[in-house]
Amino acid sequence: MSKHLESALVWFRRDLRCQDHAALFHALKAARKVWCVFVFDEAILAPLPRTDRRVAFIRESLVELDTGLAALATGARTGQPQASGQGAGLIVRHGNPIQVIPALAAQLGVQAVYANHDDEPSALERDARVRGRLSDLGVALYTSKDHVIFERNEVLTGNDSPYGVFTPYKNAWLKKLDPFYVKPYPIAPFAARLAVIPEAVCAVGAPRVPTLAEIGFEDPGELKVAPGMQGAQALLDDFLTRIDRYDETRDFPGIKGPSYLSTHLRFGTVSVRQLAGLAWERMQAGSEGARTWLSELIWRDFYHQILHHHPHVVGHAYKREYDRIKWAHGARAEAHFQAWCGGRTGYPLVDAAMRQLNQTGYMHNRLRMVTASFLVKDLGIDWRRGEAYFAEKLLDFDLAANNGGWQWAASTGCDAQPYFRIFNPVSQSEKFDPQGRFIRRYVPELAALPDAALHAPWLARPADLAAAQDVVLGRDYPQPVVQHDEARAETLARFAVVKDGTAAPKGPATRSTARRRTSA
Fold it and tell me: Which three-class secondary structure string do you get for 406-447?
């Protein structure tokens, strides 16, 4: 990597913080003057709904990042003569980064651009094109690992091939981990190199971060997750008071069990090194909750390395033979899909989970598995349709984790378990929401039913339905769109096209205690 540069530009993407930041550290170490930029990528924004919580989250996090960079520079320069201009901070642009980044690099006269890795296929293509245009200008593009603990080829089998099953990957990951990999990148000692933004780049006194309206979006109202580094730190502080019980509480949506940090991990408003380091330290002290949570962070690394080594998973099954499955289609399948999207399947836990997603942009981890299994294995609908719906709605949407989670639920992905693992939505409800706290919150039309009747209201006694404010199934709440046992049999037949010789189990569906997650 080049040293003693006159100036450099740091391109922020999915790493919206100014502490423990790999690209920012390397730029500050290498250059005498460093500017920072974020680009609202018009190609990413174009297909999004005009009211999108993620864009609002990013926008508010950028305001804090701008302030944070300015404060770092001011603190580092205390007592020093101040250059003219409006000070250090974040340059924000709205456009095509393939054009914006080279143009800004030329305008600022930098010798290098620094950024952190993004292994999504479209991002790799974008970065290759940016690198080419920068090279034409004589400017280098340097990228660094920042979003995961171990990436790409850092954890391989003894044959130097990527892992395709999680448990051996996890064991190798833990064996490789040492303090070096969770050590933070120090920013403050070099912050005096954060340069004043020239007036030609940003007019003095003008807001540097555009409003939502200026980039074509509407205010979604109150965000359920506080944005920025401060929002992440508040959630982390709270979670550290509960982390030791995480293994006992994480599966119950009616109580406060998860960390709720997945959105901050997605947008990099918190450092994964900080989180993994804290979990590892607690685990070594004997905390089972911390051990379980660290495992969730390892799943995240696992799915990112799967995406790196097997980019075909975007749009296709990881196990290619599963692309031969014939999914349900036609008017009935479309009606079922719309019922699933809208939380009107007649299965209260599934419906409560989908309503939580639609109303808040968040879904509890256990329920991501339940709803995905229901769509694929009760309704027989292509997992890619569910993946796309989650991609549109989830505030913490991450391509690698979302794809990995959906393929796990569909039994088409990296999973040693066979296709006949089918969640029973009633059993899951009885086990993980026994008092119906979560169901009552999001399916209030059933709130007056007794606990025992809440999980399968179509089996409730007429007296219980009458006592519950005269709930009429089919009017106040839908009848089940399918019968689980019948749907299970259809799924086993559907997956028979890729049977590997393992006999499918017979008899009624059992309660699944599977432990796969899509976020921490």
Answer: HHHHHCCCCCCCCCCCCCCHHHHHHHHCCCCHHHHHHCHHHC
* Residue 358 bears catalytic tag: no
- Cα(44)–Cα(216) distance, integer angstroms: 13
Q: Grade residue 466 by pLDDT with cuts at 50, 70 and 90.
A: confident
Count of Cβ atoms closer than 10 Å to residue 429 Cβ: 22
293 catalytically annotated = no
Q: Is 35 among the residues known to form the active site?
A: no
Catalytic option among 11, 383, 408, 430: 383
Residue 280 annotated in active site: no
Per-residue pLDDT reduced to its tens digit, 218-241: 999 988 899 999 999 999 999 999
What is the C-alpha separation between 259 and 243, in angstroms, rounded? 8
Please say if 11 is a catalytic residue: no
- The upper half-sphere exposure of residue 98, i.e. CA atoms within 13 Å in the direction of its Cβ, equals 12
Q: Considering the chain, what is the average pLDDT of its residues?
A: 92
Q: Where does 1-73+89-147 sit in CATH, by number?
A: 3.40.50.620
Per-residue pLDDT, averaged over 57-81, amounts to 88
Of 42, 327, 445, 490, which is the active-site residue? 327
- The CATH superfamily label for domain 320-498 reads DNA Cyclobutane Dipyrimidine Photolyase, subunit A, domain 3 (1.10.579.10)
